[in-house]
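note to self: dont lose this again. the chain is below, predicted strucutre after it. 364 aa total, dont forget to put it in the shared folder this time
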Amino acid sequence: HRLGRAGSYREARAVVAREGSALWRRAVDRVQGRGPARGDLSRDDDRPLYWARLGMTRELRTWEPGFGLGERQRAALLTELERTSRGQADLRLPPGGHDEGTGKGMKRVLLTGFDPFTLDRDIRISNPSGAVALALDGTVIDTPDGPARVETAVFPVRWRDFAEGAVERALRPYLPRVDLFTTVSQGRVGRFDVERTNGAWRGGFPDNENVSRTETVPVTDPTSQPQWTTTTLPYAAITAADTGRFPVYDNTTVTEIPAGGGTEPVVRPDGPTPGSTAREGGGGNYLSNEIAYRATLLRDRLGLHGTLPGGHVHTPVLQFGDRNTDPATGAVTDPGFVRNRLDIVAQTRAIVAVAVSAAGPDRG
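---
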């Protein structure tokens, strides 16, 4: 294979970057109907990308080239594969400007999704946010306020990558250039949520490496770190619009330790009280909340709070069909499962269209 022909670390890195990007492009093309579908799964499925990446990372971990590969170099190759095969090196925003016929500019939207997770519980698991990212990458959505070009990437469900700054590294170059961003993940059964508030707390649920972290979200310059960040997505417009079959909620609930020296967490349906310490944002205290916290904190640290709409959307849980719920005996897909995923993807696309329209003039 191509990696075996690499005669140096530099050549190996180039091969890994090229192959990682090609894997992402093939996954996007498959979902969007270009090229051969290959295999038995419907085109909308996000899992082939995840499974293929796992095979590539396993190969890279055990590769012993003739030129000798140090552990630090191997780690760098793995990082490059992770980054490129998730679309993080493939974010191609169009220039701003106005359409001469309508006077309306091409809006630019950045959207992120996640890998499947909790595979130990059900190895068949899919993540609708990953399916959304593959379905929307590079597409143009027509909105009442003009066209919007969407660029997407996915992120791993791993505490380690987030602590190492993967989210900020991927998003920092693009937030000043987009008109709207949204992080997306799988949330609650039967509903979408626009999460109003994000919290600076990791609640310890095990990640895809079975690692648990219970601590304040680790960021650069922690002395200026807020306990809470807020959405700037147009949540009222999103929840009022008819975007699909699932209800969409403006979720204002958080869990906090109130100011004044207490230690017991308190649920606040209407958001945090002054001086409180975060224990759960609207999106909980797992990596969904954390990507939302990091992306919105980055927005604020870049001075964009007042001008850039952005935040987190939780999709419904992607459920298998009624007769296919047992992981031990169930089929890897079924018609109800596919329909649920297609409906979630279509409704997320509609939510993005509403958000772009409600957010106002483009920043080009």
